[in-house]
Amino acid sequence: MKNKLPKVIVIVGTTASGKTALSLKIAKKFNGEIVSADSRQIYRGMDIGTAKPTKEELKKIKHHLINIKNPRQDYSVGQYKKDALVAIRKILKIGKLPIIVGGTGLYVSAMVNNLDFPEVEENKKLRAKLEKEIKTKGLKYVFKKLVELDPESAYIVDPNNPRRVIRAMEVAILTGQPFSSQRKSGPPLFDFLQIGLKILPETLKEKIQKRTAQMIKNGLVEEVKKLVKKYGYKPKAFEAIGYREIIDFLRGKINLKEAEDLINKNTWHYARRQMTWFRKDPAILWFDFKPVRSSLAEVLQTRAKGASETSNGANQKMAKKKVLRAISKFILS
Question: What does pTM read for this prediction?
C-alpha cells in the first residue's frame, strides 16, 4: 500500500473576496500555518496597498512568504515554488496543517500541479528593444503582440504592467514557444484540497471600492511616499496596482480622486483575470459567498424583530460552516 501524501489546504479567489479572513479562521480551528500565494505581499513595506494581514493577525497565526524581499529585488514563480516547498515541509514537520492562500494563479498552479518552469535568463538587448517599442508605440501595441504569441499567458498578465508584459514576450521570443506551453506538470507533491470563494460581480465591485477608499484613509499615500523616498521610483514592484496610480498622483500626473478611480478600475480588471484563471481548474471546490437578495419586507421584518444578523450575514456564516465541514472530512479521509 502506498504512503498517503501529506494534506494541504488551498484557499483561492479574487482580490477582495475574503480569503484572508477565512484562512485565519481555518488556521485557528485546524492548527494550521499560512503560506501566502500573493506576488505582491512578498515585499517589505508594501503593506496597505497589498492588503496584507495586520500585525495582530500575523502574530496570532504564523505566515510564510510575506515580507521576504525588498521592492528592488526580483522574484520569479520558480523561486516561489522552491520557497513554498520549504515552508510547507517545515509546517508539516511540526505537525501542523499547511494552508496556501492567495490570488496569484500561477503561484497556486506551481504548487498544485507541480509545474516545472523554463529557466530563461533576461536578455538586455531584447528588453531594451521591447521597452523602446512601449515608449514609441505604446504598451497596448506590445500587449497585442503577446496575445498573438501566447494568448494563454496574456490572460493572466496585467496588460498595464510593462514588466510582466516584457517578461512574457521575452520568454516566448527567446525560446520560440509560448511560455504557457513550456510549463510541464510533475507528479503531485501533496494531497491538495482546493477551496474557491465565489462572489457576485456587483458585490465584488462594491467591496473593491470600499477597500480602496479604506486603503487611502489608512495611509496608502504616505506608505508610497516612504517607499519612494527609500527606493526611488524605479523598482519593478511599484508597478503593482495601487502603487503605480499613487506614484502618478505624487508626480502630479493625476489628482487623488483620479488615482482612486484608476485603482478601482485596474483592481476590477485584475479580479476578472483571476476568475478566468481559477475557473479553468475543475479540482477547485467552490463555495458560494454571494449575499442573499432580501426583499424590503424581509429587511423590515428583520429590523422589527431586532435580529442579531441579516440574511446576508447568515448566508456568509453558512458558507463558512460548509467550508469547515469539507476540510474536516478531507483531513479525516
Answer: 0.84
